[in-house]
Design brief:
The chain is of the alpha+beta class. The chain has seven helices and four strands; from the N terminus they run βααβααβααβα. The protein binds inosine-5'-diphosphate and magnesium ion. Inosine-5'-diphosphate binds next to loops.
């Protein structure tokens, strides 16, 4: 089995879309193997998004991801799970995300794009270690 890391971001929880988003992952036959609803603290958010430190949207991104509870998920599938999830998510900019994807169907703004999914197998393991140290 192969795992990835997913966040239903604060906008998704606020909009009562947890069921909609997790339902899409489950209907694809991916499995939730760990889950926690948590308000992410700033230090953890900055570590998670370290690749974006210095970009103009970094401060706003950290404000957004820490503003209210997010659903943190470890998701398991048979192989290439990070890629399967990224395809279900759609493009980063919801205005360009394909219909049928979470972002394409449910979001409009880049800063409120509902879902995070790791962008490689290596990122998945790095992010799981940050948010679920006991799952290492
Ligand atoms: P991803 O979430 O599709 O992997 P990344 O490029 O890793 O996209 O960016 C992380 C998050 O930062 C995005 O999901 C989005 O919320 C935010 N973001 C990325 N680029 C911009 C931007 O140009 N303006 C505002 N927010 C952005
Ligand atoms: Mg990313």
């Amino acid at each position: 089995m192969d795992r990835t890391f997913v966040i239903v971001k604060p906008d998704g929880v606020e909009r009562r879309l947890i069921g909609e988003i997790v339902g899409r992952l489950e209907r694809k036959m991916l499995r939730v193997v760990a889950a926690e609803l948590r308000t992410i603290d700033r230090a953890t958010a900055e570590r998670h998004y370290a690749e974006h430190d210095g970009k103009p949207f970094f401060a706003g991104l950290v404000d957004f991801i820490t503003r209210s509870p997010a659903l943190l998920l470890v998701i398991e599938g048979p192989s290439d799970t990070w890629k399967v999830v990224r395809n279900l998510m759609g493009a980063t900019n919801p205005k360009e995300a394909a219909p049928g994807t979470v972002r394409g169907d449910l979001a409009i703004e880049m800063g409120e794009n509902l879902i995070h999914g790791s962008d490689s197998a290596e990122s998945a393991e790095r992010e799981i270690a940050i948010f679920f140290p006991s799952q290492g």
